[in-house]
Design goal:
seven-stranded mixed sheet; alpha+beta; 7 strands; globular; 4 helices; Aminopeptidase
């Protein structure tokens, strides 16, 4: 999959892709929702500085799911270089947030984590670590589909 050119198009016309410059305000709206930080998102000016540094970092990704109405979910992926495992990389996944307007949150969470997993594999990651403050039940069920054992914060991506 070419992650720069090919977004994942799901049923219900939901598109999963890497976020870009134009997504910030919708991401902040989602973060401001009760599903996430309940109104404690940064002000737009401050958020813009942080967001630009994220977009400028080739190892840091905001992955979004969107509909014609806007961004309905996000997840963050950070690729971390390791001194161990012969200089391999580890995928660190956090901040899975899904709008309350989505009826099948479990399916969307699975699709977002699958997209994230595929991107991590493209970057040569040997392991994924998931640490999330939101939607714990979705993380557990979706992670299990990818092979993460219950109670384990990580799993190997390669066989």
């Amino acid at each position: 999959m070419d992650f720069e050119e090919d977004p994942l198009i799901m049923s219900d016309n939901i598109i999963i892709r890497k976020a870009n410059d134009s997504d910030l305000e919708e991401i902040l709206t989602l973060i401001n929702s009760p599903e996430a930080d309940n109104g404690s998102a940064m002000e737009l000016r401050d958020a813009n500085m942080v967001y630009q540094s994220i977009l400028d970092d080739s190892n840091y990704f905001q992955i979004i799911a969107s509909t014609e109405k806007g961004v309905v979910a996000i997840v963050t992926l950070t690729i971390v270089m390791q001194m161990t495992h012969e200089g391999s990389t580890t995928a660190f996944v956090t901040d899975l947030i899904i709008s309350s307007n989505i009826s099948n949150k479990s399916e969307l969470a699975s699709d977002l984590l699958k997209y994230t997993n595929d991107l991590a594999e493209e970057y040569g990651c040997y392991k994924m670590i998931i640490n999330n403050d939101y939607h714990q039940e979705l993380i557990e069920s979706s992670s299990h589909e990818l092979g993460l054992e219950k109670g384990s914060p990580s799993f190997n991506l390669c066989s």
